[in-house]
Design brief:
The structure is a single chain. By secondary structure, the chain is mostly helical. The chain has 3 helices and no strands. It has one domain.
Length: about 70
């Protein structure tokens, strides 16, 4: 898994350089709540970027409710 570099993040987000702005863009455009690296920039992999919106992996169990 290749991690997206800071230079690639700038290109991916349309020129945004500030980590917080990049994180907001990623959340809005890709639906990914990316953790931050030590330098403040979001950390995500190319696998996450290239995944389609319907292919997001479930991070929590799907609990069934009694009807």
């Amino acid at each position: 898994m290749a991690i997206v570099t800071n230079d690639q993040l700038v290109e991916l987000t349309g020129g945004l350089r500030q980590g917080a702005a990049q994180k907001r863009w990623i959340k809005k455009a890709l639906g990914i709540d990316a953790p931050r690296k030590a330098d403040g920039h979001p950390m995500l992999t190319w696998e996450q970027v290239n995944r389609g919106p319907g292919e997001q992996r479930r991070t929590a169990p799907k609990w069934k409710t009694a009807a």
